[in-house]
Amino acid sequence: MSRSISDSDLVSTFAHLGIDRDSAAHYAGRLEHLLLINRCGECSTYHHPPRPMCAKCWSTDVAATEVTGNGVIDLLIFLHQGPQAPGVDYSTPYPVASVALDEQAGLRFTATVIGSPNEEIAIGQRVTLDWFDRAGVPTPAFRLVGGAA
Amino acid sequence: MSTSSRNPMKDLVAFAGAATTGFSAHNTDRTPLSLAAEACSKLLRECGLKASDIDGICGPSSVSAGDLQNTLGIPELTWWSNPPIPFVNQVIQAASAVHAGVCDTVLVYHVPYRHAFFTASALRDPFRRVMPAIAPGGNPDTMWGPIGYTAWASRYIHDYNVPKERFGLVAINDRSNAQDNPGAAMREPMTMDDYMSARMVRWPLCLLDMDVPVDGADAFIITTTERARDLPFSPVMINAAVLGMVDANVEDQTVSLEHHGHHVVAKALKAKSDFWIDDIDVYFPYDGFTIITLNWLENIGFCGRGEAGDFLAANWDAEKNRILINGRIPVNPHGGALSEGGTQGSGHIREAIHQLQGRAGVRQVANARRTLVTAGGFFYNAQGLALHRD
Ligand SMILES: [Zn+2]
């Protein structure tokens, strides 16, 4: 796949997230504000994190495919402490949510939640995808949809 | 998939003994190798074994088998391995090597250590800072590893409306038990107020929901049951041992708390062993996080989904402020990972052996003959061990 960024620059941008050749397309998508999730070209099943093969049919025809990022919060925590990251000081507990994506039952993507006070964020709420910059790198996040659930 | 009951190793391999350095929740001025060598040499002396009696070594990758062999002057090995923890993995590999005849007598060890990743105070020790990192850093947007337990604890509370005090019973049980264990790192009594007011780390789990990073070591001898009968302590036979993992084993992709590694372990261990939860005298569920213990109680069959907290309250020994299942079965009598120290299962197995050998001192469960150790967590490290004596 052709990319506008060199492998070397891509790896150095996402080294702290454990990028490898199987996840490179997903991370390259972030630079374009695209949430790309691996999807099987044979049976259309999505999976995440990116693997080199479809677990359902063993096809290697898997491609990072854009998803809407719309879904429902399935798992939710608030970090009162955590790893050093630009712009995160944990003095306000930092929300992390695993969101069940609308594209496929059981398919989840994990990111922070922005744009709402912590008290308003809860399991079961609908969210949509948004992006923010962390140290200049586009980073996916979720935003609550339509106020209270 | 059908669960196999095939178990040709059953009762033919045994623990001959176990020993520990005891554990400290502060940085010691000791290396992991120094702690391992202390526990191992102590155990070899107790068992009346010479260095030349050992022909196998197995422990975690943090102390290589070769370094330990060299340190203890064990002249020749025909087998060694340094597989990943938790510790039932070391047990299964060593027992399998003995059963296969690759070696006869294995020195098995574990060294829980306050690696710089775990705590800020460990990070202040320059010798610990230069040790290889064991976990990724710099990304808060993940449910990776330990964070995944917090995520599923949150979901458990949401789904079953479980009050946080129910989690506290797991922590208080461990702390009450640790008061009888001189080797435990945390022995001060803990009240429910202490638990509920502990510092929040990752909501909804607080400091006292998480195991204590410690320095220390455990050592074990695994050999044939026949050979163990010639040694000073009664053999503790491995009746069955399994690991368990499902395909959806990534933390944030786990299907639910009703479908993960625990369920594979429960099914396979039950199929391969000769006894089950009603037959045991003491129980060792893993407690690296309080949620793991609650979920083990449900997954192994003591109670239904979401009922573990109520089960603990109904099986609470008010006099000793601890769990006593059916008025009879203590749980983690050594203090577990939350109070003896985070041993990744080695402390649970060491205490199981001491209980079955009648060597548990003031903690001794009268006539303890059978136990289950259900180690590890949900995602990629669930494990089970059925142990008994004659
Ligand atoms: Zn497929």
UniProtKB/TrEMBL annotation, chain A:
InterPro entries per the UniProt record, alphabetical? ChsH2_C (IPR002878), ChsH2_Znr (IPR022002), NA-bd_OB-fold (IPR012340), Thioester_dehydratase-like (IPR052513)
Give every ChsH2 C-terminal OB-fold domain span: 65-131
Residue ranges annotated for the ChsH2 rubredoxin-like zinc ribbon domain, each copy included: 31-62
Q: What is this protein called?
A: Unannotated protein
Q: Organism, per UniProt?
A: freshwater metagenome
UniProtKB/TrEMBL annotation, chain B:
Residue ranges of every copy of the Thiolase C-terminal domain listed in the record: 270-384
Task: Please name the GO terms that the record assigns under molecular function.
Answer: acyltransferase activity, transferring groups other than amino-acyl groups
Gene3D superfamilies, per the entry: 3.40.47.10
Q: Which PANTHER family match?
A: ACETYL-COA C-ACETYLTRANSFERASE (PTHR42870), NON-SPECIFIC LIPID-TRANSFER PROTEIN-LIKE 2 (PTHR42870:SF1)
| Protein name (record) | Unannotated protein
Organism of derivation: freshwater metagenome
